[in-house]
Amino acid sequence: MKFGVITFPGSNCDQDMIYVLEHVMQSQVVNLWHKDRDLQGCDFIILPGGFSYGDYLRSGAIARFSPIMQEVVQFVNKGGYVLGICNGFQILTESHLLPGALLANDSQKFICKNVFLRVETTQSILTSELTQGQILKIPVAHGEGRYYA
């Protein structure tokens, strides 16, 4: 599988994602720039975290207008796989590829902690190697992590 990792101004952990895909998963990876207009034959697109364009307006609101996002929307509409992590998830909601929006935390404070998630299905590309009912400890860090749909 060929992965594409999109870098926006203000992205972070994009290079970490590329490293893991290349060196741990032994996968082919293309680093895609926000101004690109070609997904270069990628099978799976990843939008990493960070603060795209500084998130001055609203998280992901400006990034959704990047040229690469037109290609991502077409890719998704044809059944392509896309993963949005942190700010990448916010960009996907702003691009209307996911329903709803991410709102400011109720506490109006930045949250940084571990949460526990239970694997409900193993019938997805992301969970096929996991066990149903397995508990995962996942770190979260966000100021706008209240998903409303």
Describe the protein's topology.
Blueprint lengths: L1 E6 L6 H11 L3 E6 L10 E4 L19 H11 L3 E4 L2 H8 L6 E3 L7 E8 L16 E8 L3 E3 L1
Parallel strand pairs: 1-2, 1-3, 3-4
Antiparallel strand pairs: 5-8, 6-7
Q: What key phrases describe this protein's structure?
A:
149 residues, alpha/beta, Rossmann fold, 2 domains, four-stranded parallel beta sheet, two-stranded antiparallel sheet, 3 helices, 20% helix, 28% strand, globular
Q: Could you say how many structural domains there are in total?
A: 2
What fold name goes in the CATH topology slot of the largest domain? Rossmann fold
Mean pLDDT across every amino acid position: 95
Query: What's the number of helices?
Result: 3
Fraction in beta strands: 25-35%
CATH architecture of the largest domain: 3-Layer(aba) Sandwich
In terms of quaternary structure, the protein is single chain
Description of the molecule:
It is built from three helices and eight strands. The protein has 149 residues and is of the alpha/beta class. It folds into two domains: 1-98, Rossmann fold; 101-149, no CATH class. The chain has a four-stranded parallel beta sheet, with helices on both faces. The radius of gyration is 15 Å and the shape is globular. 30% of the residues are buried.
What is the gist of this entry?
This protein has 149 residues and is of the alpha/beta class. The protein contains 3 helices and 8 strands.
